[in-house]
């Protein structure tokens, strides 16, 4: 059955300023970058979206939905899709007007999102339902329900839309589907608890939360071709729990959030060499990078804050409060 799409064109989200309550502790004075952008952070426990400016200062807090988690932009429409796990919905938010344009319903345990802009299709992993849902965001039609293992999390499209990848934490698999017919092609066996996925130059990178590593697969053959194991001095393997992965605009640097190790790691994506570990807050998971590759935003889920890193110097320059249990971060132009 198709998912009902609720229209909310005349309904505005309530927003409120909590600047005094939040406070903005500064580690080092942050110079305002030339590039202007808006940072949006979803907070699971407080159920809101924190809006920050290019200097990392909170400008607004929007009451969003029940347990907002994964987010992804529709750049053509200048909107933001937000997964609302407890509500079983995905909302499409016009961030400028603070208006919900639409709500996609019947998406049990909506977790992570991936958007294929050329075809306006959205993948939603349904954490509690062992499936992922593919939506046509123009019509609201459900295009497919993809069967996965238990606890699906990370999702990804290839740029041409021909392949879909869905990570199943509990099953230790990454499911591969045909992006046109939606049939299952293969299930890639991974290390323990695959979480997030990222693509670069014909490679699929998979974070293994309980395996202390990132595994790398060739997208064409679907064979495992490499892995990066994290083992910095002074840490036990169980402390190194990688989750989010992203690349800079050149695809030369890979960035991985290491969870319980309270660090992010910068790697040379071609040689797999570890360039630097950077200490941040408690249990970093979510990551986002500005389009000029200068500022990295790291969400610290257990200390309820975000660390801003100067990526050129590879050092933190500011840590400031978010809502409760920050999950995902998107940077809007």
Strand content: over 45%
Task: Indicate the mean pLDDT.
Answer: 92
Number of helices: 1
Poorly predicted regions: 4-32
Can you lay out the helices and strands and say which pair or pack?
Layout: E1 5-7, E2 15-16, H1 19-22, E3 38-43, E4 48-52, E5 58-63, E6 68-74, E7 79-84, E8 89-94, E9 99-104, E10 110-116, E11 121-126, E12 131-136, E13 142-147, E14 152-157, E15 163-168, E16 173-178, E17 184-189, E18 194-200, E19 203-208, E20 213-218, E21 224-229, E22 245-247, E23 253-257, E24 263-268, E25 274-279, E26 284-289, E27 295-300, E28 305-310, E29 315-321, E30 326-332
Antiparallel strand pairs: 1-9, 2-5, 3-4, 3-30, 4-5, 6-7, 7-8, 8-9, 10-11, 11-12, 12-13, 14-15, 15-16, 16-17, 18-19, 19-20, 20-21, 22-23, 23-24, 24-25, 26-27, 27-28, 28-29
Detailed description of the structure:
By secondary structure, this protein is an all-beta fold. The chain is built from one helix and 30 strands. The strands form seven sheets. It has a five-stranded antiparallel sheet, with no helix packed on it. A five-stranded antiparallel sheet has the order 2-5-4-3-30, with no helix packed on it. A hairpin with a 5-residue loop joins strand 23 and strand 24 (263-268). The radius of gyration is 19 Å and the shape is globular. The model is unreliable at 4-32 (pLDDT under 50).
């Amino acid at each position: 059955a198709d998912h009902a799409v609720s229209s909310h064109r005349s309904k505005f989200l309530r927003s409120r300023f909590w600047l005094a309550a939040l406070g903005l502790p500064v580690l080092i004075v942050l110079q305002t970058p030339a590039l202007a952008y808006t940072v949006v952070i979803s907070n699971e426990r407080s159920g809101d979206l924190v809006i920050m400016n290019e200097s990392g200062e909170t400008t607004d807090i929007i009451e969003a939905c029940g347990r907002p988690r994964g987010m992804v932009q529709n750049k053509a429409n200048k909107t933001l899709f937000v997964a609302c796990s407890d509500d079983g919905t995905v909302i499409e938010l016009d961030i400028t007007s603070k208006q919900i344009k639409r709500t996609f319903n019947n998406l049990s345990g909506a977790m992570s999102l991936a958007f294929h802009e050329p075809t306006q299709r959205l993948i939603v992993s349904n954490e509690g339902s062992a499936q992922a849902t593919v939506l046509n965001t123009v019509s609201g039609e459900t295009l497919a329900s993809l069967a996965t293992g238990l606890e699906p999390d990370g999702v990804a499209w290839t740029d041409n839309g021909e392949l879909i990848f869905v990570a199943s934490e509990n099953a230790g698999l990454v499911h591969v589907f045909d992006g046109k017919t939606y049939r299952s092609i293969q299930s890639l066996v991974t290390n323990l608890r695959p979480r997030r996925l990222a693509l670069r130059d014909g490679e699929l990178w998979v974070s293994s939360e309980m395996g202390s590593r990132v595994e790398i697969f060739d997208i064409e053959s679907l064979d495992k071709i490499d892995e990066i194991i994290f083992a910095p001095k002074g840490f036990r393997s169980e402390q190194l729990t990688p989750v989010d992965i992203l690349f800079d605009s050149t695809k030369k640097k890979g960035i991985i959030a290491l969870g319980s190790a309270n660090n992010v790691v910068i790697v040379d994506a071609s040689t797999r060499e570890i360039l630097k570990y950077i200490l941040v807050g408690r249990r970093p998971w979510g990551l986002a990078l500005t389009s000029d590759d200068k500022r990295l935003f790291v969400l610290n889920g257990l200390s309820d804050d975000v660390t801003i890193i100067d990526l050129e110097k590879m050092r933190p320059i500011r840590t400031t409060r978010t809502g409760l249990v920050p999950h995902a971060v998107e940077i809007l132009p």
